[in-house]
Amino acid sequence: MKDCIFCKIINKEIPSDIVYEDEKVVAFRDLEPQAPVHLLIVPKTHIASLNDVEPKDLETMGWLLTKVKEIAASQNLANGYRLVCNTGEDALQTVKHIHFHLLGRRLMQWPPG
Asked: Is 99 a catalytic residue?
């Protein structure tokens, strides 16, 4: 998608601190971290949100989820991490490209905070 900031990061039009990349997924540091480790894990295929995932996206989304543990391990998150996917305005999804926040290296609170 032409105006999508994550698509621009994926296409290297905008610089980012990329920590993992393969043919289907890219992970990079969040510009406003909420934990000592705060990465965004993004499929290279533009999908607006979880509500837009279709059966044709199964391979991409499955691949992304299998890469989470590898990305977490690369960040020394053996003690645990949180994976969050905000969907829609009420959940404060600010970029309309599905992405997962990987947060770690601090004790998480519930409810989130």
From this structure: yes
